[in-house]
Amino acid sequence: MKFNRFAAIIAATAAITVGACTKPDEPAVNNDVMLDDGMINESAMSDPNAMTSGAPVMVGGAEMLPSKTIVQNASKSADHTTLVAAVKAAGLVDTLSGAGPFTVFAPTNAAFAKLPAGTVDGLLKPAAKADLAKVLTYHVVPGTMTAAQISSAIKAGGGKAELTTVQGAKLTATEAAGTVTLTDAKGGNSIVTEADVMQSNGVVHVVDTVLMP
Questions:
Q1: Entry pTM
Q2: Which residues face 192 on adjacent strands?
Q3: Residue 199 sits in which domain range?
Q4: Which one of 55, 88, 149, 169 is most buried, counting C-beta atoms within 10 A?
Q5: What is the CATH number of the domain that holds 60?
Q6: In whole angstroms, what is the distance from residue 3 CA to residue 150 CA?
Q7: In b/e form, how buried is each residue of 20-46, taking b as 16+ CB within 10 angstroms?
Q8: Does any domain span residue 212?
């Protein structure tokens, strides 16, 4: 999904809402939120529904509700059963169900399937809980960072933006032709395939490859 398309949808929705609520004899109120390049604006995300279009967002065959938490929505996606199982095994359910907010780059089942044979099974074992937690928290950035904000951060950084994860290591974000690619600490690349899936405690961007710290 192209990031520029998401920005256009959001802008169009805001314009329609303002026009519908303004009487003919009253000046329109400018409800635009000004964002500094690369900065996370928490107040802009106080109402998750404000960042969505009228159409429901579908991920893994299920509707993602902005009133639900990251864990609640992910649990409904048929494409994220491995991720949910990993979150449970790592003991991160309570964390990702908390107030946050969080920006989560969520690998699909197909993304986990790209890992070498036996990797997922090994990480899901109780003895590997700490290692699994490191991998999963490497996919989480504190705060709510939307597609537009990531794009702005990339432009402000001269073509790339470094995102500090909850795990502590950094992800490098770049953009080409409207598609954002994340490069992990080992040089692996993951593409954002669906952005701005809004949650009550943050935002999820679906990615096609597991990121490794």
A1: 0.74
A2: 207
A3: 3-207
A4: 149
A5: 2.30.180.10
A6: 9
A7: eeeeeeeeeeeeeeeeeebebbeeebe
A8: no
